[in-house]
Amino acid sequence: MRPLDGKVAVVAGATRGAGRGIACMLGEAGATVYCTGRSVRGQPATEGRPETIEETAEMVTAHGGSGIWMQVDHTVEKQVQGLFARVDEEQGRLDVLVNDVWGGDALTEWGKPFWKLSVDAGTVMLERAVISHVITSRHGVPLMLEREAGLIVEITDGDFLGYRGNLFYDLCKISAIRLAYAMAADLRDHPGIIALALTPGFLRSEAMLDHFGVTEANWEDAVEKDRHFAESETPFFVGRAVAALAADPDVHGRNGRVFASWTLAKEYGFRDIDGRQPDFGGYFQRETAGILDRGGPADAHERFELLMRYYQVHLDPARAAETAGIAAALGGG
């Protein structure tokens, strides 16, 4: 089935990872996909990474869609204006806009409190992962307004409102959720245009595979190094989530909210390209519940897991009992 035949999408930040997977699965569903990013053949923009937007566009076409690449730095407004001018001229419409520009991995200083962070590095992160999204939506959504229809997807990390362990990283990822909410509010008089946020789970990206020294063909070998990797997902899994949302005639019921690949997989019935249906959210909840059942953390690693779970649930009144149990296990009463 090709439910997105005739539809046009822009995936901002499609060079690798989730962006590449999303572009490919929109293509699988039949869409014409403009794949943007900074890395082109002969001019890599991310040190140590070989992926290019030309490759992504070719993969989109191989999956059954029509892939079109364009080199765009989404922090440069004139380049973004040029992108959408081209889309308008060539297609006359925009149905799906995915904001996946990130560029913050090398800039994130894990393990440091906010008063020890580099302000310069943090400012670049915010420009890339927040301001670029604003610029892109600012100039992309007017094409949707012409037809009073469209879907805007903000890619984030985590479907919760709590802390993510690093101040600048947290600001970037929570901002994607807030952007979806704010855009949905501004679009209240345009009910055919929907904005929402979406998170993948433990992403089996190109960089993550390289980190573990494996390929997609033998990725399970890395489970010996990190048992959580057993519940990982390919970038195509979140891609199928976006394609399912774009094809859903009732997607307006999700306006302004944040969702996860694993919950949407159950609702829409899709699977990863390897046939699996990973559920990292459910897996992590079971893992931390097991730590509590055993009487608390046995080491620093389990303590860290409990702390991360605490930040996932402590702002949710429905999780008050779980929050209290974790706080007690961490020694916080």
**Regarding quaternary structure, how should these chains be classified?**
single chain
Strand % is 5-15%
**Helix count, DSSP H or I runs of 4 or more residues:** 11
**CATH topology group of the largest domain:** Rossmann fold
What fraction, in percent, of the residue positions are helical? Answer: 40-55%
The biggest beta sheet reads: 7 strands, parallel
Question: What class, by secondary structure content?
Answer: alpha/beta
- Along the chain, the helix and strand elements come as EHEHEHEHEHEHHEHHHH
Report the uncertain regions. Answer: none
Average pLDDT level: 97
**Radius of gyration from the alpha-carbon trace, in angstroms:** 20 Å
State the distance separating the first and last CA atoms: 54 Å
The overall strand count is: 7
What is the level-2 CATH architecture name of the largest domain? 3-Layer(aba) Sandwich
CATH class of the largest domain: Alpha Beta
Number of domains: 2
